[in-house]
Fold each of these.
Amino acid sequence: MSLSSLHARLASDRLRTKLRFSDDLNEVHAKLFAAGLSDHDRFEILRSWIATNQPCLFGRLAAKLDRLGFCILTAEDIERGDRHVREKIQVARRQWKRDALRGKKSGFVISVQTIDLVSAVPDKTMLDFAIHLTKLYLNAEIEPDTVYLDQVMHRHTEDEALAWRVGANFFASAGDGRWWHDHRFPGGIALSMNSVGHMVHASANWPMDGAGKNAPKPKTLGEALRLAMQTISLAKDACSGVATWLLERKEGDACPHADDTWPSGIKGKERRNYEGWYHTDHTIPSPYFALDIERPAAVTDPHNLDFSYLWDDSDDNPDHQTMGLGERLPR
């Protein structure tokens, strides 16, 4: 089915008569759905929200420093058909990759903004809509509970570039107040792509003035590890408790980065693994679409999740090269 036909089948979330949106989302929605806005206007509204309300500290930093590429899709775009939507996404995607090569952008956000998506229940229709949107973005067949990756590069020298694999993650307004609250997003639904390795490499040349002058730019993967752990430690205590959490340090975790000066909430915590009720690397986690406000009864075993791509350079951990350090490629 097309995005348009799926959009027409979205059902209203009856729980929203009791489960009101948070004030910050209501404020953004009032701005996003005003008449006469350009795509750039809409993204600037989103960027302000991301910079202060996005749980991911890397996303906040990229928003504060204007390092996010974007593609805004409205109800009018959806009505024009899948070919139009795909082309609009691919034009924005190519621009993001060009900007990333030059170190001007790091992350990329595809935001689908419609009133129907804001008010929709997260059911199979929304799941199918998210899958189809991701297919138009990655030009690939998509399944839930699977990791899908893009790629960005940054010019390393005149003759060489570094490349990183970039994960794609689903967010939605429907998450607000639900057990997966940390993956809420204003306007409807969104796909967010963020390369920590690229940010570390490119941020050395980012300006030290403006709105983000006091932001903690990660200049090393060790600093990025600290921010990644802080992100997990800041998980919202939602209706079913936190959805992701840090683990107590085990002896001999082999991490080379000292944590003596780290905040107390992450000092002494495990630096190889953490756990969560959803898989943070899965592009579209199917448990989000079980309609429940609280964590579904079927979700009983936490996922074992990974920080080691940021520091473990052993031969059996290729993710450190492909997502942390970057792979050298001829330019």
Amino acid sequence: MPSQRDIKRRIESVRNTRKITRAMELVASAKLRRAQDRIESLRPYARNLRGVMAQASRQSEANRAFPLLQERDEVRRAAVVTITGDRGLAGAFNVNILRAGFGADRDLRGDGADDVVYVGVGKKGSGTLRFRRMPIERTFEGFSSDPGYGEAQLIAEYLVELFTSGQVDRVLLVYNAFKSVMQQQVTVEQLLPIERQVVLDDDADDDDGEQSRALTLFEPSAEEVLARLLPVYVNTTIYRALLESAAAEHAARRSAMRNASDNAGGLITDLTLKMNRARQAAITQEILEVVAGADALQ
């Protein structure tokens, strides 16, 4: 049985750990609120962007000529973009993304793809991909907690170049979508080619959509407007995925740190009870020794 001194040291160690986990929980909560605000600010812009794209597409006669919309007859080579965190201590946040990415890899190969490559966003995911010796085209790291539009644009330019140059025939995004503080949903989304229902989505219109279509005029032309909006849509989609992932990461870390703090509290209670029992056993042993000594003197 460990001594009282050993148990006291362990209790002090667990208390110090609980202080750290509580601090990390508070930091994650503050970052989560900021991430939620950024997502809420982006959603109206993304919704209006899709509305303008839908209106321009309906007036365009050359939808199939846009490179970002062109479906390949055969998907021979595909890219899977895994958006993970740069840090751990977030429960199964990073593991779920990689598991979904490997599942997407198997599905693509089952559909006839000869080769699947990875683009890692986040240190944790990229490190695991390297450890498993997966084919990595490129990695982007260092901004998972607070992503900016510039990072999203850099990733988008690279992926668009991969697709338009014919190096890959399809690009999939794998990320954690933020639903609530307690719920994050792993999402696998096709980024390129842009699916046609995205461009032709009528849900983005206003209630009086027919009237707004008639009053919308595009200069110099609907085709040129749509050609400029499609790359912006790719940038915005990646930016939204980064923001969703950041918020989900903070929420997952907050939950993980809260659970760790609760577990530490329970462990301190158990250790305190164990220490009290050890103290009682020591006192009882001393009393027995005194009684035995007194009996020996009689």
Amino acid sequence: MAVQMVKFLCGEGTVDLRIPESVRVLEMQPAKPLSDPDGAVRQALTDPIDSPPLRELAGKKKDACVVISDITRPVPNRIILPPMLNILEESGIKREDITILIATGMHRPNQGEELESMVGREIMDNYKIVNHYCRKAEAYRKIDEIEGAPIELNKHYLDADLKILTGLIEPHFYAGYSGGRKALLPGVSSYETMKFMHSFKIIDHPKVRNCLLEGNPFHEYGIRVAKLADVDFILNVVINKQRTITGVFAGHYNHAHLAGCEMVYHHCTARVDERVDMVITSGGGYPLDSTFYQISKAMIAARDILKKGGTIVVACECREGLGSPEFCGIMTSVCSPQDFFDGYCDPKDFVIDQWCAQSIYQAIEHAGQVYVYSPGLSQADLEKIGAIKIENIQETVDRLWDSHPGVVAVPDGPYVVGICNT
């Protein structure tokens, strides 16, 4: 049997597997890195999409809030932030009047060496950087209601004269695509807002899925909030497999984002004629696969091209284990997908991080078996949720070939979305 060697992202390295040449490998379309990413960022800020140049906007403002993604997103902040911050200061906004707000959502804060790795020492030491805390009532203010739920955003953002969102556009299993409006909702939203946006009902919606915007309530609510919250400007980037910048999109919070989404769609999706018997995938590598919490993205992407009762094999490092205490509590308190669905479908029973547990159980309920190769997880971590821990992923897939005639490999995990034609 002729074989090919495929490198699956895992932590900061790869897991290399020999797989039959007949297996289709879904990969990002080749995308050349920008030859001058710094220049591309400056050009995008000067000639943005459906917006005045940032310098013109900043010249009329007394202070600014720049929202950035947290450590779970590989955003090249060291490239995109300096030109932006320079323009703000050159336009008359004093450095002490610029706040960089980390859109943690419900994640932990980013500090110390972790923060330095995100923005660099120069920015870390010379600018006011604030983590968003969704549970601090004094940190946010209500601006709207959706279906009776309060929409509350961080005051650092709301009170700023100039409001800027930054981020990375990539497939997202709830919002369709990350970036744009997502920096606000859920990035700097309150816990009560998150309870609605990540409710069992929203996550269960059939159009809450990868690479779909039309009719997707997660996206459409985000656009509604971005408009109401007076987003002045966005700066989003697209990266390739090597995590170098391939596109820069700046300007109007929706129009610039949509232009970036179009690029991502052509770069990060692959058509599959029919559902397959087995999907071999990865958690996307570091930092995304630091916890099993984020592996829900890879599992949902696998589910969407998998036959009912098929098999998922996933490689993920999980150097920080399962995830937050709340997530661990969910994953160790139920024994089956139905137990989870019964226990968490009522909004009154909402707990933090239940949405990723919901996605994991959706994938497990659909699949017949889920095998997990993960140096950071124990057998006890996985067996409670119905997954199978494996120590040798090569031996496992070798054993499964004969009983799974239709196989797809997705070495980059959730960064590549298979779209089934049937």
Amino acid sequence: MGVPSDDAETQRLEMLERWERAAAGWRRRAGQVRGWGMPVSSWMIEQLALAPGQRVLELAAGPGDTGFLAAELVRPGGTLISSDAAEAMLAVARDRAAELGLDNVEFKRLELEWIDLPTAAVDAVLCRFAVMLSVDPAAAMREMRRVLRPGGRLSLAVWDIPARNPWATIPSQAMIELGYSSPPDPNAPGMFALSDAAQLRELLAEAGFVDVVVEPLEAPRSSASASAFVEETFDCSQLFASAFAALSEPERSEVRRRITSLLEPYIAEDGSIVLPGSALGAAADA
């Protein structure tokens, strides 16, 4: 069953608004976000076998890290289109590209489900940790297939099941256990909406992709301390930050204590934390 059109549009607008608000936190944490995501980004880039002169599209680029790796590999003569639906995120990516001295990057506001590019316009498409947030991931994948030239290559990543990603589930678990949040709708767009590898493979095949590969990828997340982990979560998760902001000070203290308790198995003697993480990487030919 599809999402009713009015509900779908509401979900899109709400999600876009969250990402516009989230950009400031992602800017502050850009270095950490890059480090956390690098194992997945590296795998994605390897799948594309890029060559000089190619045109690469990164969708939902956020700070742009994965695409910037591609931009280096398509020189000379090649171009990266770094895109996001949120203008504030595009601003972060522009600034980071300037810091890196990249001069072969175009920036464009694009939606996942209707990519404003001609058919067969690019040689490769990248999309890290975004398509599972789409209201209609099947439509997004069809659009990715449409803009790829014949023989082009797609590489994307989504999050694996919740049990393999305690870094993502612990903050919401604390809020739910304390009665300050409700469990998420399992049928709504969200981090784990495409955590079934078979479903992901099927969606790509139905969109017209061939030779689909889906692999689990380790994506651990480290923090200096439990309190640092909480602050990082504020910056990188608008859903958590908004719910937390609505609490009283005693309630916030209670949430912090519960998160620290749930983190206990992962805290080293020096107070630092390494939390397991797992993604699904997918690659396919157009």
